[in-house]
Design brief:
The chain has a domain of 67 residues. It is 81% helix and 0% strand. The chain contains three helices and no strands. The chain starts with 6 loop residues before the first helix and ends in an 8-residue tail after the last helix. The relative contact order is 0.05.
């Protein structure tokens, strides 16, 4: 058995520490490159958790789950797709706020 202070033990510990540090850097860079994908996955999970109660309620009323999801997306995205059109129409009429429309 080698003593705790031998050059061979010190070299092994140094190599192990260097490999561990390199692994941490490689993992950090990999996660940095995947940050957009990870953010999109987290956003998708959040949206799924938010609409699940409504989809469950629609399913209890015998509405298929896929249609319930589509209805939720339409209810969420529909007004957001129409808002720029309303603003353009208001600007075309010379109105400054949406309350004047």
């Amino acid at each position: 058995m080698e003593p705790a202070w031998s050059p061979a033990v010190t070299a092994r510990h140094t190599v192990a520490a260097a490999v561990a540090a390199l692994a941490v850097v490689v993992i950090a860079l990999g996660l940095w490159k995947l940050r957009v994908v990870l953010a999109l996955i987290l956003l998708g999970l959040t949206i799924a958790a938010a609409i699940r109660p409504g989809v469950d309620r629609l399913a209890s009323w015998r509405v298929p789950r896929a249609i319930g999801v589509v209805l939720h997306y339409a209810a969420f995205l529909g007004p957001r797709r129409a808002l720029p059109r309303v603003r353009r129409a208001a600007a075309h009429r010379g109105l400054t706020t949406a309350t004047e429309v």
